[in-house]
UniProtKB/TrEMBL annotation:
UniProt superkingdom: Bacteria
Gene that encodes the chain: putP
Keywords: Amino-acid transport, Cell inner membrane, Cell membrane, Ion transport, Membrane, Sodium, Sodium transport, Symport, Transmembrane, Transmembrane helix, Transport
Designated name of the protein: Sodium/proline symporter
Organism: Glaciecola siphonariae
InterPro entries tied to this protein: Na/Glc_symporter_sf, Na/Pro_symporter, Na/solute_symporter, Na/solute_symporter_CS, Sodium:Solute_Symporter
Reactions catalysed, as given in the entry: L-proline(in) + Na(+)(in) = L-proline(out) + Na(+)(out)
CDD domains referenced in this protein's UniProt entry, alphabetically: SLC5sbd_PutP
Family: Belongs to the sodium:solute symporter (SSF) (TC 2.A.21) family.
Entries under PANTHER family matching the protein: SODIUM/PROLINE SYMPORTER-RELATED, SODIUM_PROLINE SYMPORTER
Transmembrane segments: 6-24, 75-92, 123-146, 158-182, 194-218, 238-261, 282-302, 314-339, 374-393, 405-423, 430-448, 460-482
Location (main, coarse): membrane
Amino acid sequence: MEFGTYISLAIYFIAMLGIGLYAYRTNEESASGYLLGGRKLSAPVTALSAGASDMSGWMLMGVPGAMYLSGASSLWIVFGLCFGAWLNYMLVAPRLRVFTEVANDSITLPDFFENRFFDNTHVLRIVASVVIIIFFTVYTSSGVVAGGKLFESSFGLAYHWGVLITAGVVVAYTLVGGFMAVSLTDFIQGCIMFIALILVPTVVMLELGGINATLTALSDIDPNLLKMFTDASTGQSLGFLAIISLMSWGLGYFGQPHIIVRFMAIGSLKQIPVARRIGMSWMIVSLFGAAMTGLFGLAYMSETTASIDDSETIFIVLSQILFHPLIGGFLLAAILAAIMSTISSQLLVTSSSLTRDIYVSFLHKDASEKTQVLVGRASVLVVAIAAITLAFGENQTILELVSHAWAGFGAAFGPLVLFTLFWRNMTQCAAIGGIISGAAVVLVWIYAPLSDDPNSIFKTLYAIIPGFLASSAVIYVLGSIFPPKSEEISKLYDEYKLQLNNKNFGNE
């Protein structure tokens, strides 16, 4: 690895740590300040931090790798993600921003669910927080593993050292600066990812002689590479079920705590349309840039008769072959940015749940703001240590674990968030039933030996679909059978609807 590459990465690490220190010095020393940034994020920071925390290393490695192998048929997942993210901005963002503040200024999702339904038993909070803590610890570990493998493959560094470096830098700025540091670093990381995903496919295309020459080269390799209804890796046509399964990734957005928490933190309702336009523009360009990196990269590797051992490393290989070491280091920093932005968000959401939903709710109800911040920082460290421990163990199924966690969160929380925001009859009983049924169906669909046939519906249909449908059905049935009995629940919903129509709601 060239010296210039190390210089670029060193600058990147120093910048991330510097932002963490800045956030520490400017942040409110309160639970809301540390865990939610004091609800004063700007529209650009909200948009890019939501996007960067969403798009982990899989966008710079997984999406290009899928396009490299399967061709244009993999674009269906890109379409599904873009549509799901747009619906999240339209349906969830403004309503969650208002309702979480109206519901006793809720800071975490379990906090919101308990306050929404006046759940004095804390059962709903416990169920929701347990799901978040377990899934996110594993999810965080998968990101740390990805960082370890990046250092191992790109720098020849021992895997365990790569894990420690990745986790160490993320923990440092997250622990010190809290939510504001995470959001600001996500903004910078989102900008880096955006530039990289425009630069790489553009340079590859120019190296091949332009777009027409590139498409011709792909057609010469295999005409199926340019067909959206045919999987080039198998040569088989995609059926309706396969397309729906690929697009269903978009359903997961409604239930991802590390993404929708950004909507809770934005300054005011007026800023949400701006955030949506910025966020969706960033996402569309970045995702299609990632897709074209894989597709154009295949044409380049074929034309130059170069070889590649793992399709998911095509972005790394191209950055090393086509660019000056300083630029190559910047491009590798883009992968680290994607990995770190997601890890930091997941660390903070898990820390928030441990602090507010476990420590404050059950161990020290009268904890001061300063104590909550201290516990929050300690929780970041504890979760990071757990994630590192898992990362040091077996790690062959990283992408599979990410897929399962996405489905689990989407099915457990997605229908619950939507029904809570849109349905007056939503109750605590329905909420608990929705979380348990959604998560259970996903786990059964994935892990139970329901069928060994690779062509069965259990193998071809993404688990989020049956989980999402089951959770929705349980919520509706229980909400219909056991409607709200408390007038407080109805009054809170009325207050939320009233404030939702107040366009000046929130900080200016």
